[in-house]
């Protein structure tokens, strides 16, 4: 009976770890230019001049102004509400945040390969652990 309880507890721990780690994104160490980030059209992490970090869905440039796209009700949108552009964003439910050149210190692009690899490793470890627990309890 005690062995069954430990198996259930370990299975719950593995499954909860999977759910928690699914939201993790890995960013490149190397900094990128604003032009590279605009062309990339995917997730970016912006470090500001006062060392705060903000993650945007993507960066866009309109009329020589740089904007970061983030969800309307996100923590970033609330924190940077004074920088939100009144123009309609490209996607519904998103807002454009005006990012000036003196506001940005570094830009890091999302590393899609490392993120996908980490998901695969996490899921494989979880499946193998689950089957090991299941087979040892029989």
Produce a short descriptive summary.
The chain contains 4 helices and 6 strands; from the N terminus they run H-H-E-E-E-E-H-E-E-H.
Walk me through what this model shows.
- This protein has a 3-stranded antiparallel β-sheet, covered by helices on one side. The chain has a 3-stranded antiparallel β-sheet with strand order 3-4-5.
- It starts with a helix and ends with a helix.
- The protein is 42% helix and 24% strand.
- It is built from 4 helices and 6 strands; from the N terminus they run ααββββαββα.
- β1 (44-48) and β2 form a beta hairpin.
- With 138 residues, it is α+β, with helices and mostly antiparallel strands.
- α1 (2-21) packs antiparallel against α4 (112-137).
What can be said about the biggest beta sheet? 3 strands, antiparallel
Question: Based on CA inertia axes, which overall geometry fits?
Answer: elongated
SS content category: alpha+beta
Poorly predicted parts: none
- Strand percentage lies at 15-25%
Percent helix among the residues?
A: 40-55%
Query: What is the H/E string?
Result: HHEEEEHEEH
In whole angstroms, how far apart are the ends? 12 Å
Strand order of the largest sheet: 2-1-6
Give Rg in angstroms. 20 Å
Average pLDDT over all residues: 84
The number of E-state strands comes to 6
Please count the helical segments: 4
């Amino acid at each position: 009976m005690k062995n069954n309880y430990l198996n259930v507890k370990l299975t719950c721990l593995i499954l909860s770890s999977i759910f928690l780690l699914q939201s993790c994104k890995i960013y490149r160490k190397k900094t990128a230019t604003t032009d590279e980030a605009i062309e990339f059209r995917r997730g970016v992490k912006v470090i500001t001049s006062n060392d705060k970090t903000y993650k945007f869905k993507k960066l866009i440039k309109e009329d020589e102004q740089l904007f970061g796209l983030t969800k309307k009700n996100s923590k970033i949108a609330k924190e940077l509400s004074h920088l939100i552009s009144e123009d309609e964003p490209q996607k519904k439910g998103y807002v454009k945040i005006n990012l000036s050149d003196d506001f940005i210190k570094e830009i890091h692009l999302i590393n899609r390969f490392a993120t996908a690899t980490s998901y695969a490793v996490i899921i494989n470890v979880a499946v193998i652990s689950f089957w090991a627990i299941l087979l040892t309890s029989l």
